[in-house]
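Figure 6 in text form: structure in, sequence out.
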């Protein structure tokens, strides 16, 4: 606990300098951790935990909304894996269908892996 307090003291002295104030909080800590000679082992653990907490539930709510529309009454026999795959595609790709179709057809390695049924890694 004493080590954490000492690390905090070093951060407190450096975090409110004019160069740091103009940055967002996560950028301040990244700069401080990368430029310092002190390892900040305890404070890195605490800040990693704090910065991993999402600031809103918007993304989760959007995914549940998409899942509800994908798994409606007309499609109630869909398996969980099918709904999961559909949500992953809707969430991770922003291109329109024709553009995505052309892009996928141009990727020979992906087509080979898909025909074999193996996982694709770039």
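Output sequence:
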């Amino acid at each position: 606990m004493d080590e954490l307090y000492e690390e905090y003291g070093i951060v407190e002295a450096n975090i409110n300098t004019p160069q740091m104030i103009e940055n967002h909080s996560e950028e301040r800590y990244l700069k401080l951790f990368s430029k310092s000679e002190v390892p900040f082992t305890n404070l890195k653990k605490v800040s990693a935990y704090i910065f991993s907490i999402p600031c809103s539930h918007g993304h989760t709510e959007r995914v549940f909304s998409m899942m509800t529309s994908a798994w409606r009454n007309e499609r109630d026999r869909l398996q969980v894996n099918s709904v999961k795959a559909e949500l992953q595609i809707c969430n991770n790709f922003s291109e329109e269908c024709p553009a995505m179709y052309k892009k996928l057809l141009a990727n020979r390695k992906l087509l080979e892996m898909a025909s074999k049924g193996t996982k694709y890694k770039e």
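Caption detail: Residues 2-51 form one domain.
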